[in-house]
Design brief:
The protein has 369 residues and is mostly helical. The chain is built from 13 helices and two strands, in the order ααααβααααααααβα. Helices cover 73% and strands 1% of the residues. The protein has a two-stranded antiparallel ribbon. The longest helix has 35 residues.
């Protein structure tokens, strides 16, 4: 997993700003997939070293920062055609994380055990933050009247940007300092030690026990993995941009809506979190899966909106943020269903099926609005 990110980075340097023949497009796509797998591997190394919930936070923030850079670069080069790219990508990220990643994780967890168990306090707080950020940034612009169309005025966009940063910062403080135990994997009765003496004494010990008995990587190995993670994530997003003309051409040739481009970009960028979340669910660590899913959705909104607000100073053309009626229905239904999933702190195969059906509906309606 050391050579793959470096090869992908070399391919990015050689292919940047150039039109690629079909054979090289396929090679770039293969290296993109390899960079995704490498990112997941190195993120898991870091997570094993620093423990939860810091491991989930590292991957979510790293991916989102580079995702934001991709959105801004595409908006700068796309002109008026990219006016709704930020909205489409952020909305797609919310749907993918809250329905796709959550649904797949619950499916994997409930196939292993009949009931997937997680911490309702931490997950509920994360969901409340995602719902608030999504409503303020994606739903309200549809109904405000200060600017023409589904867009914020400059003052409204500034308010949304400040609030997004504040809420995201407050959540990170809660997750990592004040109530860290709310975001640690739950130990079930089947996993509990046989004697009281064998039980972990602290939340940190419980997290380490939940992560398995493999030795923690050394500080040097962790720093190497951190560097390779950043390289892998840069190449994932960079190669996604290299492939974007092919994606846009394929979308237009198929007669699909332009919003599909944002969906494809979000799917590519969130692939590392998806694989990491499903792997955590396979280890019966549903809480880590939910941390990754909701943390990625929150970071996607909490970091994208402030950056877009700053970038709008020099971006030409309108900035469309408000969702249409169909997407508003999907967004509202997603948060109702996710709330009903989270509140009990336990989920079954039925909940995973409901989330996956919502995800399938999102994909279908993106193609056939």
């Amino acid at each position: 997993m050391v050579a793959v990110p470096l090869l992908a980075l070399l391919a990015l340097v050689l292919s940047w700003g150039r039109e690629l023949p079909p054979v090289l497009v396929i090679i770039v796509a293969v290296l993109l997939a390899g960079a995704v797998l490498a990112a997941v591997h190195h993120a898991e190394v870091i997570a094993h070293r620093v423990g939860e919930p810091f491991g989930s936070l590292v991957l979510a923030v790293a991916v989102t920062v580079i995702e934001v850079a991709l959105i801004v670069s595409l908006m700068i080069s796309g002109g008026e055609h990219s006016a709704s790219l930020a909205r489409d990508t952020v909305f797609a990220a919310v749907m993918i994380t809250c329905n796709g990643i959550v649904g797949l994780s619950l499916l994997r967890g409930t196939l292993r055990r009949k009931v997937a168990v997680f911490n309702a306090e931490g997950t509920g707080g994360a969901l409340a933050t995602v719902a608030t950020l999504s409503t303020l940034s994606l739903a309200l612009p549809t109904f405000t009247t200060s600017a023409k169309g589904p867009a914020f005025s400059a003052a409204q966009l500034g308010f949304a940007a400040v609030v997004s940063l504040l809420l995201y910062g407050l959540f990170v403080l809660t997750q990592t300092v004040r109530h860290r135990d709310y975001f640690l994997p739950v130990t079930t009765a089947e996993d509990a030690p046989a004697t009281a003496e064998a039980a972990p004494a602290t939340a940190e010990d419980a997290a380490a026990d939940a992560e398995g008995h493999a030795p923690r990587p050394s500080a040097r190995a962790t720093m190497i993995s951190l560097g390779l993670l950043l390289v892998a994530l840069v190449t994932v997003v960079g190669l996604a941009k290299v492939e974007s003309p092919v994606i846009e051409l394929a979308v237009s040739s198929a007669g699909l809506p332009q919003a599909v481009v944002g969906v494809v970009i979000a799917l590519l960028v969130l692939l590392p979190e998806t694989i990491a979340a499903v792997r955590a669910a396979k280890r019966d660590q549903i809480q880590i899966s939910l941390n990754l899913a909701l943390g990625s959705a929150m970071a996607s909104i909490g970091l994208t909106i402030p950056v877009i607000a700053v970038a709008s100073i020099w971006l030409t053309g309108p900035l469309v943020l408000g969702l249409g009626a169909t997407h508003l229905v999907l967004l509202g239904l997603t948060f109702v269903v996710t709330t009903l999933t989270v509140v009990p702190g336990r989920a079954t195969l039925l909940q995973s099926g409901v989330h996956l059906v919502l995800f399938a509906a999102f994909l279908f309606l993106a193609i056939s609005p």
